[in-house]
Design a protein that fits this description.
The protein has three helices and ten strands; from the N terminus they run ααββββββββββα. The chain is of the alpha+beta class. The protein has a domain of 115 residues: Sandwich (Immunoglobulin-like), CATH 2.60.40.420. The longest helix is centred in the first third of the chain and has 33 residues. The protein is elongated. The two termini are 29 Å apart. Bound molecules: copper (II) ion (CU). The site of copper (II) ion has 8 residues, from loops.
Length: 219
Amino acid sequence: MSAEVVPPDEVWWSLFKMYTIAAVALGAFVSAILAYFMIKYREKAVKEDPVDAPKPGTIPSMTAKVGKSVFMLLVSGIIVTGLTVYSFIPTDYVEKPPKNPDMVIWVTGYAWRWEFEYPNGVKTSGEVVLPTNTLVEFKVTSGDLFHAFGIPDIEGAKIDAIPGIVNSVWITTPSEPGEFEILCYEYCGIGHTYMTAKMIIVTPEEFERWMNEKLEESG
Ligand SMILES: [Cu+2]
């Protein structure tokens, strides 16, 4: 088990938290300034225009305050560039499948079902049984038309299933046994809604027992 690898769902979650906190803080700051200016510059009883108010038929002079605008543009540019770079690093990490996954599962989408193949050649349809705390790479493709493989309960576990192309998505399986839904995320025809499967997480001992049974079945 590769406990030292940070699973993609944690990476996505921390990125999401960072942006949420930043957005709420910025929103609060902008709202506070807006409220302050609304009160400070509210219309007074005197209705005279200020001296620098624009007049109809004249173009306002651009000489003043350009420096400030350029400065603000630079500050925004630095923030946006910084956030982009900061987001690219974890995105790149998640995009690349790990070098030594504990298990590689081939996933093939068909209209309208999911089929799975284990490293030892065992195949299942409609369900994939996996042990807890395991670094799994799903190699996803399609046998007919465009589908998309996704596990809604696991952040970021979603990838296109395209005929002739193999896309990878990887997860660390949950630490507790349980059942997780697998869905098709690309509208693919009349059976799309029913194109579901189950990811069944079991203890490593139970997984071994299940696998041995499967191997006996297939002779
Ligand atoms: Cu589909």
